[in-house]
Amino acid sequence: MIMQSAIFAKKVGMTQVFDDVGLISPVTILKAEVCKISQIKTTKTDGYNAIQIAYGEKSWKTLINRQEVT
After folding, report:
1. Of 10, 39, 51, 64, which alpha carbon lies 20 to 30 A from 22's?
2. Is residue 1 in a domain?
3. Is residue 52 part of a domain?
4. Domain span at 63
């Protein structure tokens, strides 16, 4: 079994840092939030093994649009 790891983050901005000799390096600022497992898929029910994760918050616009459709 292959185990993979990752980090989910939102880009907040860019800045720069200076090293000991004064060289500038560009830096991306990231904001990482908590991820939750929202669904577990198995070969028995779905034909494959996987997990579905939830990240961030749903916007009110998405919730309102889904209510109008149903």
Report:
1. 10
2. no
3. yes
4. 9-69
- In this structure, are residues 45 and 34 in contact, taking their beta carbons and an 8 Å threshold? no
Domain count, the chain: 1
Q: Output the six-digit token pair for 43.
A: 């070969």
Q: Which band of pLDDT confidence, cut at 50, 70 and 90, is reported for residue 63?
A: low
Place of tokens 């004064």: 22
Strand partners, 59: none
Residue identified by tokens 């990752």 is 6
20-60 pLDDT, tens digit each: 999 999 999 999 888 888 899 999 999 999 988 887 776 66
pTM of the complete model: 0.52
Residue 27 forms part of a structural domain: yes
